[in-house]
Design a protein that fits this description.
The protein has helices at residues 27-39, 74-87, 99-102, 107-119, 123-128, 135-148, 235-245, 273-285, 290-297, 310-319; strands spanning 16-21, 44-48, 63-67, 91-95, 154-163, 165-170, 173-178, 188-190, 202-207, 210-218. The protein has 321 residues and is of the alpha/beta class. The chain has 2 domains: 16-235, Rossmann fold (3-Layer(aba) Sandwich); 258-319, no CATH class. Strands 1, 2, 3, 4, 5, 8, 9 and 10 form an 8-stranded mixed sheet that branches.
């Protein structure tokens, strides 16, 4: 068997973004804002396990909605996501993914059903086969994860989170304190299979005390500028992620120079249609008109912007007052 190696180029990177939080933390709204920015003006899909709660935002976002009802097995989640992916949606939001673990017919219920099948009412046998009863649900969960990694669309997964406590001995006394975790922060732990958050590209915790402001759990260096500390998740964050995932540059650049209209690199081609959409989304998110950017860059229309000036245009939008 032979192997072929090619020069690595970042392009068509599939994003898996995890958002975890308790009630009132802004999970759904933040997920929809991210999806809108990533989709760049195209309609995206929402798989809803929360009895249609995502439709509360139907007046603010353009998306197609699908209800996922029990049983919330890994196989059912896989079917819903693949169906959305085959339809061609650029982004798929799943709210909530916690049901796959702890919902009606989820992994916990599957393990309990296996216990009943293997040991019935024999308490001693139930204890002996408890680990073996996890084999089937774990296998189904792993199959689902493998399917997620093959999806062409970008995925935004929402997880419920709950506060975890533990008893610790301090100064000779037992005290209750928040339980920490590799995938938790401030005592909040996502309700999901423990390894699932590690499959994500980015992973954030949201708190009801600061709705929509992400606390990074998993955030690579190249994405940090897209999520400034203390700032809410926005459509612009999504647009920047989409540009990065498609192979675009997100490095700092100066504002478009009004005098540079004739001085740019003549070899540079015009930006692609999806980049026009990304810029338009960024402008709209900041309340800036396309006409303002075109005037600053001396363009007849946004489609005339060349690739060598794209970074400067993005920087101008970010810094425009």
């Amino acid at each position: 068997m032979s192997f072929t190696f090619r020069h690595a180029v970042r392009e068509n990177v599939g994003l898996i973004i995890g958002l975890a939080g308790g009630t009132g933390s802004g999970k759904t709204f933040s997920a929809l804002r991210l999806a809108k920015g990533i989709a760049g003006g195209k309609r995206f899909a929402v798989i809803d396990t929360e009895a249609g709660r995502a439709k509360h935002y139907a007046d603010q976002f353009d998306f197609d909605h699908g209800d996922l009802t029990p049983p919330f097995s890994p196989e059912r989640y896989t079917e819903a996501i693949i169906a959305a992916d085959k339809t061609g949606y650029p982004v798929i939001v799943v709210d909530s993914y916690s049901h796959e673990w702890a919902g009606d017919g989820g992994c916990l219920d599957m393990q309990e059903a296996e216990l009943d099948r293997m040991a019935k009412d024999d308490a001693g046998k139930r204890e002996r086969v408890k680990v073996a009863a996890w084999i089937k649900p774990k296998i189904e969960h792993k199959r689902m994860v493998q399917k997620l990694l093959q999806v062409r669309a970008h995925l935004i997964l929402c997880f419920r989170a709950e506060p975890k406590i533990e008893m610790v001995k301090k100064d000779g006394r037992l005290e209750v304190q928040a339980k920490q975790s590799l995938v938790g922060k401030d005592g909040w732990i996502p309700i999901c299979e423990k390894n699932l958050p590690f499959e994500t590209t980015l992973y954030f915790l949201l708190l009801a005390s600061a709705p929509g402001i992400p606390e990074p759990i998993k955030l690579q260096e190249q994405h940090k500028a897209m999520f400034p500390p203390g700032k809410t998740i926005t459509e612009e964050s999504g647009a920047q992620l989409a540009a990065w995932a498609s192979g675009g540059s997100t490095s700092p650049a100066s504002a478009p120079n009004p005098e540079a209209g004739a001085g740019h690199d003549a070899r540079a081609g015009r930006i692609a249609p999806e980049q026009v959409i990304q810029l338009t989304t960024m402008l709209k998110a900041r309340g800036i008109t396309v006409k303002s950017l075109c005037a600053a860059a001396k363009l007849n229309k946004l489609e005339d912007l060349t690739t060598d000036r794209l970074d400067r245009a993005k920087k101008w939008i970010e810094e425009h007052k």
